[in-house]
User: What shape does this take?
Amino acid sequence: MFQVLMKLRWFFWQQRKRYAIAVGLLLFLNFVEVAPPDIVGHAIDLMNQRGMTVGRLWNLIGALALVIVISYTCGFTWQYQLYGGARVLELSLRKRLMRHFLNMTPRFFEQNRTGDLMARSTNDLNAVSQTAGFGILTLIDSTTYSATILVTMGSLDGWRLTLLSLIPMPFIALAMTKYGKVLHERFTLAQDAFGDMNDRVLETIAGIRVVRAYAQEEHEEERFAATMADVYRKNIAVARIDALFDPTISMLVGITYLIGLGYGTYLVFQSQLTIGQLTSFNVYLGMLIWPMLAFGQLINIMQRGNASLDRVNETLAYEPDVVDPPTTVEVARPEDIRFEQLTFRYPTSDRDNLQDIELVICRGETLGIVGRTGSGKSTLLRQLLREYPPARAGALTISGVRIEQIAMDVVHGWLGYVPQNPMLFSRSVRDNVRFGRHDASDAEVLEALRLADFVKDIARLPNGLDTLVGERGISLSGGQKQRIALARALLIDPEILILDDAMSAVDARTEAHIIESIRSVRRGRTTLIASHRMSAVAHADWIVVMDDGRIAEEGTFADLMAQGGWYAKQYERQQAYGEDALEDRDAMISTEERG
Assistant: This one.
């Protein structure tokens, strides 16, 4: 049951001053709060024996007032320190999770659903936070507070009466242990189901256009209803066990009251106990109700916290697929990029996705990459992003240094990457363009948008640059999203600009205009362009044709046209039939370049 506290010992040590104050005050209040019943019992005995005087009355009132002031002051302080510590833990874990997510590579997100990660970042962290706050309170109150009350009862009112009244206590412990084990299992299943529900909602919202286009609203409602039914069933199973805690304890506490009142009354008649002592004893029994309930809550909270912490730690324990080496090599700037007999395979693939790639790109050159869908164009470009472990064979070097030996922050600082399906944030057009350079002026933003041929679209937007694009840019067309993403990359003026079919959703004329603009501002900088339009890379210094993970053809535009191979045939075909017509036809076959 207390495994969760051992797992959190690093945090308790880190916040030892805060928890020392909170626990110390709780222990001190244990002794303070047992005083009022004895004071009341003493007052009753004085009145019963006609020994109460005005002086004694004021002394008793003063003692009670002092207890109230001490309890209030100490109570405020321990609650601030204890629950403040719980929030610090939640904040710390949430920061660690966010940092972990940012360091993860695509494989992690392929293996973990977004909805489940959200559940672990919200519900599970809340359960762990409760363990570090309310859980510590229930631990103190169910052990030391109850022990203080019991010792006080035994000392002031007699051990026989106290021990006889506590006969139901072992049954409370037995019941709580059994309930706690079942609760842990059911709560884990309920949290998993909550993650499934989150994932279903996110998937539906992200694909709402497709759902409506195929008139699948009713089907999606049915699927969501089934998911909700599963969440409901599993949470009801948790609630059934949860609901047994308080009634079980209340019933056993009632038996304790019955024993105490019955046997206590007998002792009063036998003159072995005064009326004041019996009164204070019953008050103490009433005070014992909370520690007994706290014991039940303790099992409940600890089991929930343990299950949730296990889920959070499972996520944090995932090791990044790509990490910096212990010592990195300093590289001032990327003078050249070399693929030296590079062979690469995705972790989930059963075959090589790139084979024997031999390629040299000098600084300031433009490389064009073309090929059929699935030929390996995107895979080739992604080698520079360092999203996956190193190649199985060969090497990728920058300025003569293997890319694995260069710090990832340095490599990423050189890159401007625009994929075919860019990610836009639910912010304004201006903020999306300035994502890589928050200090960019409006003039610089407009210049980047001009290069991306987006200026003419600004006038058509409701609020110009301040127009919110919606989640994932849902309010924009595919071409507009691509051009904003391109402007975002151009704004940072990267050493290496990677365009992975980044203009597939714009017409050929617009693409030609953008390419010309890029050429005018990218002199002396390296540019890699993958495209399904042959003319888009005709200006490149070197062009490679990918086929099944290999370089099938390479050379300048003139070389490839002279060879009369796949590139020449595709170029002539696109020129003859019109690139836009072919674009529409290809879009029907595949809306996303894979490779």
